[in-house]
Structure formats: structure tokens, C-alpha cells
Input
Amino acid sequence: MSMLREALFSTMIALAAVPAAAQEAAEAPPMLNTPTAGWNVYGPGQTHKARKDGAVQGGSAMRVAIAAEPENAWDIGASVPIDKAIAKGDKLILAFWVRSAEGGTLGAAIQQNSAPYAPIVAGRVDVGPEWKLVHIKGIAAAEHAAGAANVALTLGDAARMIDLGRPS
Output
């Protein structure tokens, strides 16, 4: 029987897995990535800077300014590595804090971190001017070795300023 895991990626940028037995015992879940990891922002035509923000859990954020919409939405993005393995059948929840005065949506995924960058869990989240904890849920269809996956956000859907929650 495959182990059931809950994965959580939040302001602490922590991806956690909970085996079914641990869920029953209400133990703290082991982390699938380093909780102190920040966002790795990339792409031409953007600038980014860590900043203090007492309005978000953890007290700091990564502000990403996109001057003009790039040719491809994925040309500008943010990622965080996942350090631990993901098992087939793992129940995954990708959650993170986000806001943007311009609103809109953005793509979010737990994916392979090398070509073909296939999604493990993916979707789109609504973004508004107030801090919001957003979620994408799914079940891993295959195994992924430790260090072979990451969290990836597609930020280049529009010219905008976007804040991503991060640890203090």
C-alpha cells in the first residue's frame, strides 16, 4: 500500500509530507524542501528584491516587478527546490502567499526540475491586491527522486508588480 503524504508549500516555503500513520498521530510532517529557501526569480525584463512586509506570514516577501509582458508567460518565473523524494500516489498541496495590485492569475506547479519540466501538480491561481494564501492540489502519478522536482510559478502573464510570501 502506497504511503499517503500531504505536501504543503506556504509562506515558509516548506513542502511537507505526512505518512498516513503520522496523520493519525497528529505529528508534525517532515519537510520535503528546506523551509528557509527563498524564491529563485528568473527571466529578462524583471527586477526582484526581498523586502520586509509585516502584513504577510513570516514578515517578508519577494517583490517582482515586470516592466512588459514577455513573449512567453514562462519566460519570467520563480522557483524553489524540493529536496526530498515524491512517491507515486502522494497527495500534494502546493500553497503560497501572493498579492498583486494589478490582479489577474498566475500558473503554479510542482514539476520536474529538468527537461521536459513535466508537471506533477499544476494549475492557476487568482491574485488580488490583498495577501491571499492560494492552493493547488493533486496526486503524484509517478515517483520523483529527491532533488528532481521543484515548485515553479509562471509570472510573465502580464506587466505587473507581484509579491510572493517568503520566510523572514
About this structure: DSSP finds one helix and eleven strands in the chain.
